[in-house]
Specification:
227 residues, Immunoglobulin-like, nine-stranded mixed beta sheet
Length: 227
């Protein structure tokens, strides 16, 4: 347990250092020399009113970035901090952020999902030696799913409501498992694609009587069609 805590302290310190360095970088450095940055994407989906909606969150590993499968061992994407702001918050009854896709079966060295009103995050770190994340290098967009936002829509969210899901441009970062190399929007090595949920009309389930009436009607039509 102590080693895991120390492991995360190292990563957290590296992420803080990386953010500070990016903020102090010159404009030329901020523009970045990465032609095809890695990408974090929140999906855009529809969700029936009164329902629970799952929204995939993905990472696309592209060649030529500081981190990735095309880099030497120790420089692969093995940790991430993904923070999402959702609005209007009143349209969301509850929300959780869990691992999904290629990280579902992995065992993280550290995991946390802090939240505050209108925001939720997923922070994971995996050992490259024992739990390498099986990304597909240069795969089709949006890349590999690493997490899922589980959103229960508020009863007050009417059809046509759009709930925006915006990635935090500072606190959304990728890292290697030792926390010595980070990718973020400000250093030009990461691109963010925001998502949304559009609330659609709910389709009420047919009751037993309605199903019986429908079955009788269909049977009657079938009999008549024979004559």
């Amino acid at each position: 347990m102590k080693s895991k805590a120390n492991h995360w302290k190292t990563i957290r310190a590296a992420l803080v250092t990386g953010v500070a360095a990016a903020l102090l970088a010159t404009p030329a450095m901020r523009a970045g020399s990465v032609a095809t940055p890695d990408v974090v994407t929140v999906a855009t989906v529809n969700g029936p009113q009164f329902s629970a909606v799952d929204v995939p969150v993905s990472i696309r590993d592209r060649s030529g970035t500081p981190l990735g499968l095309d880099q030497p061992a120790g420089q692969h994407i093995q940790a991430y901090s993904i923070k999402v702001t959702y609005a209007p918050a009143s349209a969301v009854q509850s929300i959780t952020f869990t691992r999904g896709g290629v990280t579902t079966s992995l065992t993280p060295a550290f995991e946390s999902s802090p939240s505050s009103p209108g925001t939720i995050s997923l922070i994971d770190s995996f050992s490259e030696a024992t739990n390498p994340i099986p990304f597909t290098l240069n795969g089709a967009a949006p890349g590999n799913q690493v997490g899922t936002l589980h959103v229960s829509l508020s009863p007050t969210a009417t059809p046509g409501t759009i709930i925006t899901l915006t990635l935090d441009p500072v606190l959304t970062t990728l890292s290697n498992d030792s926390g010595t190399t980070s990718e973020m929007l400000s250093n030009g090595a990461l691109t963010l694609v925001n998502g949304s949920i559009t609330v659609t009309p709910s389709v009420p389930a047919l009751g037993h009587i309605a199903l019986l009436v429908l079955a009788i009607s269909l049977a009657f039509i079938a009999i008549r069609s024979r004559f």
